[in-house]
Design a protein that fits this description.
The longest helix has 14 residues. The chain is of the alpha+beta class. A hairpin with an 8-residue loop joins strand 2 and strand 3. The chain contains 2 helices and 9 strands, in the order ββββαβββαββ.
Length: 164
């Protein structure tokens, strides 16, 4: 069996005062053309923590300076993908204060606000549609650990490993 190390990333779920979710329409692969929460890869070579990564991504993508007190870690998604050459560990954060102004487009994509009940019908990554938004709606004030086992055909199974 081939082994792969985890790639570590963060996603930050942000809403406005109307409870609409801020999404970015991605300009680049792997989710080019799809809508997702903002976020990015952890700079492990610099010793960056998931919280530091989330703070940096909020600043880089929407131009807001935040601190650790502005974030709630509501879960993780550990995706095992032995057939595509990488595994993912994604830390899920919720920004605790609303942002009402739509951020200006950036190189990574353009921003849109969407009602949470409509998101699963939008052009979003398969994992987001089947897992992330369900977990966010169910327990974004708590904590949920999710395990995803990607299959050779691209499909996947998932389970909740821990929840509080």
């Amino acid at each position: 069996m081939t082994t792969h190390s985890y790639r570590i990333a963060t996603l930050i779920f942000i809403e406005n005062s109307k409870k609409e979710q801020l999404l970015i329409r991605r300009s680049f692969s792997p989710n080019q053309g799809l809508l997702s929460p903002i976020g990015g890869k952890l700079e492990a070579e610099k010793g960056e923590t998931p919280v530091e990564c989330a703070i940096r991504e909020v600043d880089e993508e929407i131009g807001r300076s935040i601190s650790t007190e502005d974030l709630h870690l509501f879960g993780y998604l550990a995706e095992k993908s032995p057939f595509c050459g990488k595994h993912w560990m994604v830390y899920l954060f919720k920004l605790l204060s609303p942002i009402d102004d739509l951020p200006a487009p950036i190189e990574e994509g353009a921003f849109e606000f969407h009602k949470i009940d409509c998101i699963e019908k939008l052009e979003i990554p398969q994992t987001d549609a089947q897992i992330l938004w369900k977990v966010f709606k169910m327990n974004s004030d708590g904590f949920t650990g999710i395990r995803v086992d990607r299959k050779n055909d691209g499909d996947f199974d998932w389970t909740i490993e821990t929840q509080s």
